[in-house]
């Protein structure tokens, strides 16, 4: 158990809908990361927050947005969902955001299925 | 952006060293190389990272070539529990001061009994 929690574990929804994935980091960690893992594209880094501020951005679609709240939990919002958004979404956390403090601990993931 | 290239799969006999290569020929001087592994669909697990010096921890060793264009992850005595997909990742800096992580496609390591 990494100490990172993600809810829900599974989510089934329809195209065009909007969903919110939630992540609670390990106690004491200030950074939160989001990743998407689909069958045909492997692991894709989406975005990172450090103490509420966006610090790193990958290939995150405009339909997706994220934020980190004052209590350090984070939410990833996915809107206008398409079939291709079906994937495992992982959250990770680390103490900081420098190479000496960015060892990431991953949660168990949320499996999103868009029908 | 830096790009990482890894062989799609490798086999290794149990008890032998597993050497997993990664090519990152476009890496810049201050960009770190990280290795993570993923067992089935579990969340990836950190293994090791480095900039230009060789690194060793309780799990593995990381050898980075002098020109930094490639690296090798070494699992000194592979066990069946090391069967996983191993990802080589580069942390790419940007002029704005932000950065992003570029994942390779991963090497599926199978440790054979």
Question: How would you describe this protein?
Answer:
The complex is a heterodimer of chains A (115) and B (113). With 115 residues, chain A is mainly β. Chain A is built from no helices and 11 strands. Chain A has strands spanning 5-7, 10-13, 19-24, 31-38, 42-50, 53-57, 64-68, 74-78, 87-94, 105-106, 110-114. In chain A, strand 5 (42-50) and strand 6 form a beta hairpin. Chain A is globular, with a radius of gyration of 13 Å. The relative contact order of chain A is 0.33. In chain B, strands 1, 3, 4, 8, 9 and 10 form a 6-stranded mixed sheet that branches. Chain B has a 4-stranded antiparallel sheet with strand order 2-7-6-5, with no helix packed on it. Chain B is an all-beta fold. At the A-B interface, strand 5, strand 6, strand 9 and strand 10 of A face strand 4 and strand 9 of B.
The radius of gyration over CA of chain A amounts to 13 Å
Instruction: Provide the β-strand percentage band of chain B.
Output: over 45%
Structural class of chain B: mainly beta
By DSSP, the count of extended strands of chain B is 10
Q: Radius of gyration of chain B from the CA trace?
A: 14 Å
Oligomer: heterodimer
Can you count the helices of chain A? 0
Instruction: Tell me, briefly, the overall form of chain A.
Output: globular
- What is the CA–CA distance across the termini of chain B? 39 Å
Q: Give the helices and strands of chain A as they follow along the chain.
A: EEEEEEEEEEE
Secondary-structure content class of chain A? mainly beta
